[in-house]
Design goal:
mainly alpha
């Protein structure tokens, strides 16, 4: 019983970590994209 519990806990932790990492990566990507877009737009609009 203890083994199954430890395994389940480890799995849940790994899953949570992976999810958090994926979320952080997606957020960073979105931010970078938005920044790049804003920069491109601002540089294009101003002569």
């Amino acid at each position: 019983l203890t083994l199954t519990l430890t395994l389940t806990l480890t799995l849940t932790l790994t899953l949570t970590l992976t999810l958090t990492l994926t979320l952080t990566l997606t957020l960073t990507l979105t931010l970078t994209l938005t920044l790049t877009l804003t920069l491109t737009l601002s540089s294009t609009s101003s002569p």
